[in-house]
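Researcher: Let's do a round of design. I'm pasting the structure tokens now; please hold your answer until I've finished.
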């Protein structure tokens, strides 16, 4: 019995002692600093992005960091020319700008969305819009995956962009928790990309070396909560949904390695879209960009995604990793 207790106690403390667990990356309103740490697997120092978004943006300006401040100075979408790229939620916001940029660089953009519109169809062609598909609907997603394959062949890139952020601030102390909304966010943002990728794999709708990109959020970093949500917590469903999304991405990276698909998680940076309109007052100080620039940031990192970066969680603002 004593040996069993000793074994259990060692097993429970081992991950922390070995540094597997970081003490504990959203839209942010507080302060912090750069974190440099050592990964337990490679023992190589990783220079992470900075949790404090005000500081991160101020540093970029101080350093005249072109990569951060003007993505067009480094971005050239040429590598995606001629590729077939699926974008979920490509009917508005960041997704629509990604779609426009894909078309501009000569890629075939295919859109999976709930509701199409004439402007979107004029951009990508009516036949490239798979509408009526909610990413929480198993059957609709499976059917769309089969149709995409049968209609036009294999996809080279998938950009899981559809997402949802419940508007009111959730807090235990203010008694504003909404568990149904939490589950909805987890279903859309956590399970949505997994559901889409799984259906595409099963439908054999992916090209040999396809890239599976998921637009997640820095909101999914546990470690960054101590800075970005310092002493206030909140927005439970938002953060939990992205933590689930990230875990699903890491597991997919492991399982799909043998198929040659890389799975990369991208925080798209802070974009001036409907989703973040509630944060309008901090757009300037936190360096929020127009979604057409956010789209280039996402595509820049999509082009870089490879089997070397599979399973990584990357900030499209500076190209650095975000700690889990
Ligand atoms: N904007 C930012 O600063 C920021 C920061 C971090 C992460 N992100 C992530 O980036 C992605 C794009 O954000 P955004 O700012 O463009 O948001 P947005 O303007 O609110 O657009 C969200 C998109 O997701 C779609 N969507 C929502 N629920 C869906 C569902 N159940 N099934 C299918 N599609 C659904 C929406 O389609 P409908 O038109 O049908 O609603 C819309 O196309 C999201 O995943 C978001 O979480 C954004």
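Researcher: That's everything. Go ahead.
Model: Designed sequence:
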């Amino acid at each position: 019995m004593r040996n069993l207790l000793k074994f259990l106690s060692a097993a429970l403390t081992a991950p922390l002692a070995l540094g597997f667990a970081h003490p504990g990356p959203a839209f942010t309103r507080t302060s912090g600093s750069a974190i440099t740490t050592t990964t337990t697997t490679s023992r190589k120092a990783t220079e992470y992005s900075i949790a404090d978004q005000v500081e991160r943006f101020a540093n970029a300006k101080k350093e005249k960091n072109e990569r951060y401040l003007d993505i067009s100075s480094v971005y050239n979408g040429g590598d995606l020319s001629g590729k077939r790229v699926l974008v979920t939620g490509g009917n508005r916001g960041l997704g629509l700008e990604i779609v426009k940029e894909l078309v501009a660089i000569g890629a075939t953009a295919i859109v999976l969305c709930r509701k199409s519109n004439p402007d979107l169809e004029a951009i990508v062609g009516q036949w490239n819009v798979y509408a009526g598909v909610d990413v929480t609907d198993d059957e609709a997603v499976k059917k769309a995956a089969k149709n995409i394959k049968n209609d036009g062949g294999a996809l080279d890139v998938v950009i899981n962009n559809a997402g949802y952020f419940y508007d009111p601030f959730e807090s235990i102390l203010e008694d504003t928790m909404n568990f149904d909304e939490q589950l909805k966010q987890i279903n859309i943002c956590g399970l949505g990309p997994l559901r889409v990728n799984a259906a595409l794999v099963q439908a054999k709708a992916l090209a040999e070396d396809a890239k599976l990109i998921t637009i997640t959020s820095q909101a999914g970093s546990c470690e960054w909560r101590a800075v970005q949500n310092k002493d206030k917590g909140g927005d439970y469903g938002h953060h939990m949904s992205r933590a689930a999304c990230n875990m699903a991405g890491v597991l997919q990276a492991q399982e799909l390695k043998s198929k040659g698909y890389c799975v990369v998680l991208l925080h798209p940076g802070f974009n001036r879209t409907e989703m973040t309109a509630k944060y309008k007052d901090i757009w300037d100080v936190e360096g929020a960009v127009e979604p057409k620039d956010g789209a280039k940031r996402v595509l820049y990192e999509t082009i870089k995604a490879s089997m070397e970066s599979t399973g990584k969680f990357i900030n499209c603002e500076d190209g650095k990793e975000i700690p889990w």
